[in-house]
Each structure stands twice: as structure tokens, then as C-alpha cells.
Amino acid sequence: MSDDANSLVRTVLTDPVHFLAFGFGTGLAPKAPGTIGSLPGVLLFWLTLDMGLYVQLAIAAALVVAGIWLCGESARRIGVHDHGGIVWDEIAGMYLSLFLAPVSLAGFAAAFVLFRVFDILKPWPIRDLDHRLRGGLGIMLDDLAAAVYALISLALYGWLMN
Fold first, then answer.
1. 61, 115 in Cβ contact below 8 A?
2. What pLDDT, on the 0 to 100 scale, is given for residue 40?
3. Domain that holds residue 128
4. DSSP letters of 18-45?
5. 133 in helix, strand or coil?
6. What pLDDT score does 32 carry?
């Protein structure tokens, strides 16, 4: 591992802002950090299943609001807009994507795949949001839009299956 990579790992693991923005360290994954970084969102949603819709919506709102600041501040400190290791946006987007998923392994897997596909491919207007907006809002918004696409897909699937 290079000195720069070691320095980043040390920074992420010792600074609370980076530790959260990097998804509790999952954003340090050497391959597919966004995909690995989405997993805490699945875990958090599963842990909050029995808390009720209003609590889950409050958690989702908190993830988004906190993420705007966390992602922006982490990017500013590192000096790289939307560094690939900053995955709080993936956590929030994944959490939101699960709201319309069937509560099953298959349902969660479908939401996970849909969210990741939309986040990676960035269909319109996600790509525009990703390129035009700066700071924490810009980092968060493309993942929130990918979550909306995943939710629409899950809703359409649910409607077609009924």
C-alpha cells in the first residue's frame, strides 16, 4: 500500500467526519467501494424494520441531512469532490431504496441491485446532477435520485405483480 493510501486509511480511521463519510470504513474497500459502502444502508434498514414507518422516515431524513454536511466536509478536507471512498451517500440512498422492497432476501437483493445499477449508470437526470452540483448536496443528490429510480422500479414491479 502506498504512503498516500496509508495516510488516507489513518485519516479515515481517526477522524470522526471521515469515518462516517467513508461508511465506517467500508469506503476504503479497494474494489467497488460504493457497492461495499451500500451494505450498511441495508443493515440499518433491517435493524429498523420493527420501528415503524415514521421512525424510518425520520432516520432517512437524518441520513440525508447529515450526509449533506458529512460528505461535503469530508470532500473539502480531502480536497477531492466526491471521492470514491465517500459512501455516506450510498448508505442513505440504499436505505431509501428499501422502503418499497418486499421484506425478504429477494426483495432486499432486488432493491440493492436496482440502486447500484442506477447509481453506476447514472441515467438522466442523475448524470447532470452529478456533474452540475458541488459540495455535499451534489454528492448526495445523485444517489438520492438513483434511490428514487429504484423505488419507482420496485413500485412498478409491485403494481405489475398484483
1. no
2. 98
3. 3-161
4. HHHHTGGGGGG-SS-HHHHHHHHHHHHH
5. coil
6. 96
pTM higher than 0.90 for the full model?
yes
Report the number of distinct structural domains present in the chain.
1
Residue for grid cell 436505505? 95
Q: What does the alpha-carbon distance between residue 162 and residue 156 come to, in Å, rounded to a whole number?
A: 10
Burial of 91 (0-12, 13-18, 19+ CB in 10 A): buried
d(CA 16, CA 11): 9
Across the 162 residues of the chain, what is the mean pLDDT of every consecutive 10-residue run? 78 93 96 97 98 97 98 94 93 97 95 97 80 85 95 92 78
